Amino acid sequence: MMRRWFTRWLWLNWAVIVLLVLLTHLCGQRCWLVGLLVYTPPQMWLVFLAVIALAAWRMNRRLALLCIGTAVVFAGPLWEWRTHRPAISKDLWRDTKALRVLTVNRGDHHGHSSAPFVMQQQPDLLAIQDSITPYAYIPGAPEYAALANQSRVSEFLLLSRYPITKAQLLKTQLSADPRRPAYQFKGARFEIDFNGTPVAVYNVHMPSPRRDMHQLAHSPSLETLAALRRYWRDHQTMIEDFCARIDAETMPVVVLGDWNQPPIGPNYRRLIHKLQDSHTQAGLGYGWSFPGDWWTPFTAGNVWLRLDLVLCSHDWLVLNSEVEPESESQHAAVSAVLHLR
Question: By the number of CB atoms within 10 A of the CB, which of 1, 36, 211, 254 ranks highest?
């Protein structure tokens, strides 16, 4: 009798894990509780499935094998694992229509230098968020020698090999709250002259949910829960506002930045409705870029979220997408090679 109930309990645990993972992809941040799970290390689910498989191996081999299969599905297609890039002629890389781009959030860099990765990638466009933090950007550094044109709007810095013809700060004012200022979508829109073709370049840094999550964890109450739920609503509003800007664009678009949301759930699907994600098009591995300075027992110090994205309109063919090797910096840089069709 005990064995039967224990087996049922293991089946229930497997079902709950599958349900929660599916909810993160179906609901995402539209539900506050599921939104919290979106930011947890995905390796956590593999550990849980491994424990169930080990416990069930002698009593119910079918359940154990099902857990192993579920873990393979999670760690493979569900987490956007990429094993190869599309077969594209290398001649396109050297074409005048090829554009190398790189994005990096330099906040909380802990003294880490992104110079080796920048010099290796040799970008034509380099977008920096949190560029006004100490030592985030050093003018005249060798890695920026080929990027003669630059424009800064608030925290957003764009370095370019091509002329920058326009720069504009973007904000979305949200509902007022007497306890604190409203969240604002923060970003900048630049225009460059790409060999005679005007291109819109967005440098984006969305507000982080970290503060509201910490407050809810340390002081759980209806007030802190309401604040987190408000953040999710505002986040959705900011995504919709940005998508409306993209819908109105008439020129090729490149979007570089830190979205502070993993690429799962309805908000992400809305974001890429008219945009391509460079990692899903031409990346390898998981493309995770955050957090390089946090340690958890599930990840053994490795990154586990893909917050820093290179997006582009369908005017471009994505040739390549890479992530900076892990470091002590909170954010790793992400680069891509795009080819104007």
Answer: 254
